[in-house]
Design a protein that fits this description.
heterodimer; A: mainly beta; Porin; 2 helices; B: Immunoglobulin-like; 6-stranded mixed β-sheet; 5-stranded mixed β-sheet; 11 helices; disordered C terminus; signal (chain A); copper ion binding (chain A); Copper resistance protein B (chain A)
Chain lengths: 282, 665
Amino acid sequence: MTFSFSKATSAGLLVAALSFSSAWAQAGGGHAGHGAPVSLGTNPSAVQSVGTTPASGAEDHTGHSPIYFGAVLFDQNEMRSNGRGSPIYAWEGSGFYGTDYHRVWVNTRGETSRERGALERAEAQVLYSRLIGYYWDLQAGVRHDFRIDPREGTPSRTYGVFGLQGLAPGFFEVQLQGFVGGDGVFLARAAASYDLLITNRLVLQPEVELNFSTGWDRDALIAPGLYRTEVGLRLRYEITREFAPYIGYSFESFNGGATGLNRRLGEKPSQSTVVAGIRIFF
Amino acid sequence: MTKTFGFGAALRRLSLAGATLLAVAVPALAQSVDLTLEERTVNINGTDRPAVTVNGQFPGPLLRLREGEEALIRVTNRMRQSSSIHWHGLILPSAMDGAPGFSTGFVRGIAPGETFEYRFPVVQSGTYWYHAHNLDHEQRGLYAPIVIDKREPEPFRYDRDHVVQLSEWTDERPLRVLQNLKRDPGYYNWNRRTLVDLIRDLGRAPDGEARRAIVRNRIEWGNMRMDPTDIADVTGATYRYLVNGFRPETPATLLFRPGERVRLRLINSGAMTYFDVRIPGLKMTVVQADGNNIRPVVVDELRIAVAETYDVIVEPRDDRQYQILAETMDRTGWARARLAPRTDAPVEALPQHRPRPVLTMADMMMNPGPTGLDRGTPLPEQDQPGHVAPMGGMDHGSMAGMGAGQPQGQAAAPAMDHAAMGHGAMAGMPGTGGGQAAAPAMDHAAMGHGAMDHSAMGHGAPGRSGAQGPGTPATTTAGGMEAHAGHGGMTMADPVVHDTGSPPGARVLSYRDLRPLRADPEYRTPDRIIEVRLTGNMERYIWSMNGNEFWRAQPIVARLGERLRIRFINETMMNHPMHLHGMWMVPDLGNGAFNPRKHVVNIKPATSLDVDVIVDAEGDWAFHCHLLMHMESGMMRIFRVTRDGTPVASTQQPAQAAMPAGHRH
């Protein structure tokens, strides 16, 4: 119906224009210099007075100062099912606000518990982000891992974060982060993803994340070396840039010494899940 | 007397574009006009959206001035934000230029409720336009044509006169569009290269070598972190393209009688869109560019950069309608009007889009200009670190070798060898690189020669013939483009020849065709050269000159009376229509005193062009890329002209904010 409405409006414009032009045509070719201001803008179907439109600071922008802007992306916003038990909800998202060069960056991720359905673990990072070169941001800030249930799950931890985030040659989104914890254990995380455009709207996104540690943090299920791996493959359809439902596959695994830590808790050290969700960008 | 005569002549000569929304708002004798800026809703796409209107009109009313008289224009701002009107291309005192933050006494523009009185002598004639000097208001409708009648009769004859003002409309807020681009540079590009395209191209490839080249090409673009389909930042995904305010579905009708000579005043008032304009069935005789008369050139097609104007004369002989087709450079939309003997003719269907162009590796191969990579030209300021030249991943060593006219046998990419060959030939060196060409590339190399000759022409011989060729259409149709790119294009991009994908034999206008009627009396060698690199990055949507955005850049300072050569070097993959307020720019096309005077000079991706500025107007002037999203992102400078060439305090500083009495009401 939008279309027909627009058609009608345009038709109105056209009619107005045609009558206008025929008037000119009849008047012959000599009217150009005359002073009588003729305003087609009075055509009521096309132009009406707006009372007030709220003025905002942003609208005053005239290229004389950096633009402040922000974005939020929930790259993972999904239900995960391993075929047994009830599915869990998991998310991984980030957002920023600032200029091209200086930004406040927030990363967050977490998931619900398979048994209880309540939030099981969550992580949040607040970072200052500084552009270096055209493709990379240098970031520093804090990360906090929340302990949701005081009786179980991993304990809360706070780390100092420094990292590098950007676009590597070949259009790989890359995130490298180092975490300095309270126990003197140094953690590192490397993540990369790639958007493979099958068509302009159908996008296959492989993604890898590797977590490393220099030492033991048994309560937090952290062991030296590579202790946790995440691999994902998600196929999304971008209905708009903002809204893209997807399906995919995710594989999470504890590695090395962390395998044993998990087993002691009665958890399987690795699991594959089928995921379905909606990528949100705004 | 003179006035009356001129007025009568104007009456005889002109008939206003019938179906345009433009009204004649100016009594030609008084040269006094009131313009009121107001927000009103328009409905372009079926939704009411707030537009900026001038005297209640969208787009604004035609402003008609007469050369040699004084213009008195009172602009009242009835909006809630400060606004401004800039008289694009007009030579006038800095205080009357209407660029907030630049023009003397015009720091914040016209505040809400205020009236600003513009008063300036009209010293030129031709087709120009006016617009708000900010993204938000201009994109939302504050733009309109200016027609300045010449004091003497025009050197060409015409029976009728129509304005064809191209523009775009988006239902989104313009700043929202910019923010979308900053958040996701591909936000509006739904034509990126995909896996499906790759499979199709591989399927069409004749042999294994071609397939390898296609894959290599993909990898090279990926390694550069650039997208060859990025032809326009903002596309038909959000824009509707308009002529005189009309959508292509309901085009403006410009009347003619068969046999008449019709003057079309083409104005690109788009914020972001380049148009390829053609009128199937008619040749266009270009008689004026950017308001300056030129030797008539007959073309089939022309590409109009943002903010340029071209006046063309057409002679429709048949009693039928002709479509004025303006296809966006990225082929995602049409603007169109029609020339028709009657207004009641049915609207014809739009043709199929031509294949979309894609950038090739050759397009991205930096053309270092006449001096090679050894530019030896001082920058107007210290560079900021962090800019990346487009060829970052490629072998610069061999480029340097090319500059020296010694093609080297480096196998970095076949393209390099060919480029080396081309360059050697340009420099008059023996083309020793030829033997290294991969077999499938040879014929392309031959084709590329046309463009090479053009380059040579542009920088060397002042002869006329350079522009006469049909361009290089054979290598440019998009269908073959990606495959060609795999072999590497054979020549570096010509700084002024456009590949519009026109059929073979069609003549496309290039800047080299623009030759003034008389030798420029002010022509001389430039007093000094400065280098302005056009820098930026699509991935982050950052745009700047010499790596500095407006807010952290020094003004470019010029001395009154000098002739300053700006050596533009476009290091980005986008076209940038560079605009200088208040003074003429003269692109050096190798035609000496017959180089044209322009107010906008387009700098093609990865090319270099020397542009002389006739520094004859004191004050602070805006100097910027006329893609408004780029300007708003910081691709702008203060161009400061002082008597002794030393910097003076900027009008941007509050201390200088005092306004001359008498211009505020």
